[in-house]
Each structure stands twice: as C-alpha cells, then as structure tokens.
Specification:
By secondary structure, this protein is an all-alpha fold. The chain has one domain: Up-down Bundle (Four Helix Bundle (Hemerythrin (Met), subunit A)), CATH 1.20.120. 68% of the residues lie in helices and 0% in strands. The two termini are 27 Å apart. 9% of the residues are buried.
Amino acid sequence: MDADRAAQLLAAERERIEQHLTRLRGEMPSDAVIDDTDQGDLAYDMNERERDAARITELEDELRALERAEARLAAGTYGLSVESGEPISDARLERLPAAERTADEQRLWERSGR
C-alpha cells in the first residue's frame, strides 16, 4: 500500500477513535452526579456506565494498535505482518488500517487465545 494512502487511513481511524472516546468520556457521569432515588433507574444507569466503560477500554486498545501501526508506517514496515513479515492485503488494510497480521494469521492468533 502506498505510504500516503496508509497515512490517510490511519489519520481517519485516529479521528474516529478519538471522537468516540471524547463522546463516551463526556457522557460518563461521575459517581457524585448519579441520582439514586429510583432503584430501577439506578440499575439502568449502572448498566449503561458499565457498557460505556467497556467500550472505552476497547477504543483505548484500538488506539494503542493504531499507534503501533503509525510506528510501523514511520519505520517502513506498515502493511507487513508482525508475525511473518508477509504482506497484508490492501483490501484488509482499507477495512482495518491498524491490522497487524494477515487475515489467516489473525484467525490463528485469535484461536490460540492470545
């Protein structure tokens, strides 16, 4: 993949992740703000907070993967698998700009429970 296109994809992905993080963090009430007058509402609020907190963790993981991809781009190894050094398809990088492995390697990696 062309380095300019890779940089565009990574920049767009960074913007997407950061926008979601900003929105979710802004929506998370502090413990002092929660009104516990209705237990049903409190349970709902807690469930929403847990879901948002989990999504924030996922987005933070995505941001770290993106930072690794940006480092690979700077090092000239973007688009090559971190496992084998084999090229990652352009189609995969278009869908997942921070992809670290080929699709086959990723499936094996996920099955191994890493």
